[in-house]
Amino acid sequence: MNYTDFLKSKIKLAQKEGVDLEVSKINPALKPHNQLMVKWLVEGGRRACFASFGLHKTVTQLEAVRIVLENTGGSGLIICPLSVRAEFIRDAKERLGWSNLPKFIRRNSEMNGDGIYLTNYESVRDGKLDPTVFEVASLDEASVLRGLGGSKTFREFMRIFTGDGGPNGNRRGAEGVKYRFVATATPSPNDYIELLAYADFLGVMDVSQAKTRFFKRDSTKADKLTIHAHKEEEFWMWVSSWAIFVSKPSDLTGDPKDDEGYILPPLEVIWHEIPTDHTKAGYEKDGQQRMFKNAAFGLSEAAREKRETVDARVAKLMELRELSPEAHRILWHDTEAERKAIAKAIPSVASVYGSQKLELREDLIRGFSDGEIQELSTKPVIAGSGCNLQRHCNWAIYLGIGYKFNDFIQSIHRIQRFGQPHAVRIDLIYTEAERKIRKDLERKWSQHNKMVKKMTDIIKKYGLSHQEMAKVLTRNMGVERIEIKERRYRLINNDNVPETKAMKENSVGLIHTSIPFSMQYEYTPNYSDFGHSESNEEFFRQMDFLTPELLRVLKPGRIAAIHVKDRIIPGGLNGLGFQTVYPFHLDTIQHFTKHGFAYMGMKTIVTDVVRENNQTYRLGWTEQCKDGTKMGVGMPEYLLLFRKPQTSTDKSYADEPVVKDKGKYSRARWQVDAHGFTRSSGNRLLVPEELAKLDHKGIFQTFKKNSLDTIYNYEHHVKIGEKLDASGKLPTSFMLLQPQSWSDEVWADVTRMLTLNGSQWSKGKEMHLCPLQFDIVDRTITQFSNEGDVVYDPFGGLMTVPYRAILLNRFGLGCELNNGYFLDGATYCKAMQEEMDMPTLFDMLKEPEQASA
What we know:
This protein is 39% helix and 15% strand. The radius of gyration is 33 Å and the shape is elongated. The two termini are 62 Å apart. The chain contains 33 helices and 26 strands. The protein folds into three domains: 33-259, Tandem AAA-ATPase domain (Rossmann fold, 3-Layer(aba) Sandwich); 267-462, Rossmann fold (3-Layer(aba) Sandwich); 483-646 and 747-845, Rossmann fold, CATH 3.40.50. It is α/β, with parallel strands linked by helices. The relative contact order is 0.08. It holds the Pfam family N6_N4_Mtase. InterPro entries: DNA_methylase_N4/N6 (IPR002941), P-loop_NTPase (IPR027417), SAM-dependent_MTases_sf (IPR029063). Residues 509-822 form the DNA methylase N-4/N-6 domain. Keywords: Methyltransferase, Transferase.
């Protein structure tokens, strides 16, 4: 595979797992848009159908399953909510004209030969029915999977359907159920994790891969996902490669005439606010009585508010009913107390609830749907999905509101559907203290509409062709090359693989770079970005194209200094429930030695453990006190040193040795570079009270000097910190009392904020994610190169390495893919070459009198 083909392989669109299908083979009773949906599902093999309410997902699933079975033989299974099975049987008979109707079963023993069977989610979840004996399965109202890892339904369905073993041993082994479909009208736009759950269930991409590929990390909450702005287009194209969003028939057919009869009726939403009794506001944790009830409800407070206001809300319900006493209405509620209150106030109402027999529930819902029952009282979680109630009802009253948007929007569309001849009225009753819940519902509703529009726009633009979407994404490869060449440096805005390949052999005196930490970060939306990888293996496959070229261009016997850091793997991704460490530096060593570099050792650079904990919540004091076994240690950074073998093995020196003048390179400096120690001067340990009187800057400098000049004492170190904490002088945002080192093998005096990134921040620009520190770069350049050498950084970023190389009388060479970083780096290098007074963060930190002197 050449490099271009490798980059193309990084484009991830769902692959076809089904069989080719001509539209002529599909039941002609289906509408044109349903025929296209069936063709897309069958050819994909593992696909999601997110079609709007009333667009006939029922017949679409039935026909897709039937056609798959024509090719495979055997039986198919459709899993649906308890109250929906009658819709499948009715549509199979009346719309499709089938004589062999689907049969509802709860156990495999109830099967009577091949065919299409219906079951409910509970039968599968509880192990009564093994789906792995079926060739194809479709999940109707598949939003039950949205619970992801915390949901028993999701865990069981993933275990059974994806091949980890069904309740009866899973006769298919690793394959699971080969053909899988999901269908719902309301994939939640408010929580991307639901879409990822569908992709995982369908075998498109597992959740952890998708999180890494498209989303920013939030260390405070594992499933709080924020999509990278530069990844949004790719994300939605990826989704539309395995999920079809349809809001009206013409979205697929392209013919507006097909929308006739598929225009949703007008929706009138009326909110009714009930005053809250603030005399029951309660107390704060410190015992202070509240003046007003807390509007920022949690689940427990919301439940309490519902209990305390049920009478007032039922009174409003009765008032609304008087507007049209004879109208057919559905009365939605959330709790048993509300159901009983409604039944008491309206004796004639038909109530559907969980403890009823299934047959009775279905009979009541059917009776209301057919107009035989005037008013139905039930919960959205019971009858809010799948039922078609619009034939005799266009009015719903909600006795309360809650946080579950999916249940809410599903229940609205039981009556606002295609085929509804009347305008739909929705009355929502809530209390003053529930204003935040109302705003949250309205926000989610708006986001839902935006997402559906975004997805349908993609389908309108590209159709259902993967090839067209792939062409668009392929454009995100490489950049328009820019080169800036000056007397003391050369900078290139380009992919570093072809750029390094074009460089002369044995032309570089030192390679010094910070390679991307595998797939930890992406710096551009470009597929050439090494961080744009779905796995560690894919990252190193791309490095396989670069590293041999680095070896080729480096002078024989010279050094490649590679800055790396190990990665923290969250417990949710490694499956262990606690954070572990991926030893990235070890894989990097193996990678470079595989390509011919000789490993020479590494410098260890300690980091700020407190600051790191603020980013990962891995090293917390509280957690350490709860269980010290799960804490781990602060993650150092490493500077890995690799040497290109010299031409002749008769001598160990480089072809062009890095020579030091002993008059300038002292014995003392050599000892520090090699393995230096600062011996004890006999000076005493600091008294904690002496530190407590100083400001943070004074404390840091004094502690550092004392730590390096005297014999280290762990208990005394801790005692100083405890004393400072007691006096309010121990900061929580950075580590004040850093352990200092006597050995140059551990660089503890690297100034963490002294980087070009500080200049970026001061100018209000984007922060580079992992900038190299000046201290590291200066030491490396001075120790491992001669004046006049070319110093090359293939991952230039803000061009710190070329910038410092110019300062140290070397020739700076840098390559960077990100155009913004490249341009800023060019500015810094130009300023250095012209010997302009470029202020650094240290200049800003100087005392006023020092700065003026």
